[in-house]
Write a structure and sequence with these properties.
By secondary structure, the chain is an all-alpha fold. The protein has helices spanning 10-32, 38-55, 60-99, 104-130, 135-148, 150-170, 175-204. α1 (10-32) crosses α7 (175-204), α3 (60-99) packs antiparallel against α4 (104-130) and α4 packs across α5 (135-148). The longest helix has 40 residues, at 60-99.
């Protein structure tokens, strides 16, 4: 029992991770406040989460802001690309839907393309946080890996959807927990899926 509650025990380890995730989540929210820096903040979130997974106890505050400074330019460019692509997808869907009067035959292929792009977008910031790549290389890798690992990417997307979108909309009583843990906990759970994909990708290079 003493070993169970010791510094090296599972309970202490779990509590330490929860404290790290709480601190990280608040830092991510602060990093996102200027809006334009959301990409840098999210990329830094994944970078620190991957460090927590590999090292255990880390200095979250210093690691996050170091990663934030390093990811600022690249993350901002990626964020602008994701926002622009999202707006373009909505516009294209709306235009084609109006022109074809909602023809299912035409809209199904459009929806498939949109789904592929959404899954690719799901991997952009984790890749930016894991690998030192150019913006072009990150986008190519996101498209390639999302196509090769559709199920894993879809599960990561569902986790994000549930924890980041569904809970604040449909479970407002959990809003405080959402503010404290939503982004960091989502990234931490996703990391169990994504690291396997990334490790395979790194070995193949």
């Amino acid at each position: 029992m003493k070993e169970f509650f010791s510094i090296d025990g599972k309970v202490y380890g779990a509590l330490n991770v929860m404290v790290e995730l709480l601190e990280l989540n608040l830092l991510v929210i602060i990093g996102c406040l200027p809006i334009i820096t959301i990409g840098a903040s999210v990329a830094s979130l994944y970078e620190v989460v991957f460090q927590i997974r590999s090292e255990g106890a880390v200095r979250v505050y210093s690691r996050f802001w170091k990663a934030f400074r390093e990811n600022l330019r690249k993350g901002t460019v990626l964020w602008m690309i994701v926002v622009s692509a999202g707006a373009a997808m909505v516009l294209v869907y709306w235009l084609i839907s109006n022109v074809t009067h909602g023809s299912v035959v035409v809209l199904i292929p459009i929806c498939v393309i949109i789904a592929v792009l959404i899954l690719a977008a799901m991997l952009i910031f984790p890749i930016a946080g894991r690998f030192d790549m150019s913006v072009q290389a990150i986008i190519r890798s996101a498209l390639s890996l999302s196509m090769q690992h559709v199920l894993v990417t879809a599960l990561a997307f569902v986790l994000m959807l549930v924890f980041v979108v569904v809970i604040p909309l449909f479970a407002p009583r959990l809003l405080l927990l959402w503010v404290l843990f939503a982004f960091s906990l989502t990234a931490y759970l996703q990391s169990w899926l994504l690291l396997r994909v990334f490790n395979q990708h790194a070995q193949a290079q």
